[in-house]
Amino acid sequence: MNHYTLYFYTSCPNPKREAEYWYSYTHIPDLSKAKGLVAAKRYVNEDQGSKAKYLASYEFCTDNIKESLLSFFQLVRRSFESGRHIDCIESVNVVNTPFVSCYKEIEIVPGREPSTLEYPRVVPEALEELEERLRAPETKGI
Predict the structure, then answer these.
(1) Residue of 74, 91, 67, 64 lying closest to 30 (CA atoms)
(2) pLDDT per residue as tens digits for the range 89-141
(3) Cβ proximity of 37 and 31 under 8 Å
(4) Which residues of 29-57 are buried (b: 16+ CB within 10 A; e: fewer)?
């Protein structure tokens, strides 16, 4: 088995929504069924000036990473389609950010689960494109 880690750098453009605990109590459990996913962690950047406030890591143990990623992104799609994906997360391009950033792990605190989930049911175009690339037989990487 090979080990892989998938990283997502994000921010929340709405400061009032940052305190929501959707990621820990909804998103990670929803994605836990992805083939080969063995761990998921979330971090916060303590550098207040960074564009990438959050880092999520997803660890896979698999002999077929393409199959595992397709499974993962299909679960992400389902979370959008079922209204279980939050609407205030934005991907961040980290190409032009400082070389070194220090992220502190966000602990899951019992009792802070969101009471209701009412998020949009629209799947982002970027996710559609990524799924298409993963389904293509000649795809070597994402």
Answers:
(1) 74
(2) 777 776 555 545 566 767 777 776 666 666 777 777 877 787 888 888 765 55
(3) yes
(4) ebbeebbbbeebebbebeeeebbbbbbbe
pLDDT digits (tens, 9 = 90+) for 27-70: 889 999 999 999 998 888 888 777 888 888 999 999 999 999 99
Give dist(CA 79, CA 88) in Å, integer.
Answer: 14
Contact residues for 73 (Cβ-Cβ < 8 A; gap 6+) = 127, 130, 131, 134
Q: Which residues contact 4 (CB under 8 A, 6 or more apart)?
A: 59, 60, 62, 65, 68
- Give the whole-angstrom CA distance, residue 14 versus residue 53: 12
pTM (2 decimals)?
A: 0.74
Q: Are 26 and 112 in contact (CB under 8 A)?
A: no
* CA–CA gap between residue 34 and residue 36 (Å, rounded): 6
Asked whether the CA dihedral 95, 79, 71, 38 is positive or negative, the reply is positive
Q: Rounded to whole angstroms, how far apart are CA atoms 21 and 29?
A: 12
| Contacts of 40 by beta carbon, 8 Å cutoff, 6+ apart | 28, 31, 32, 56, 57, 58, 59
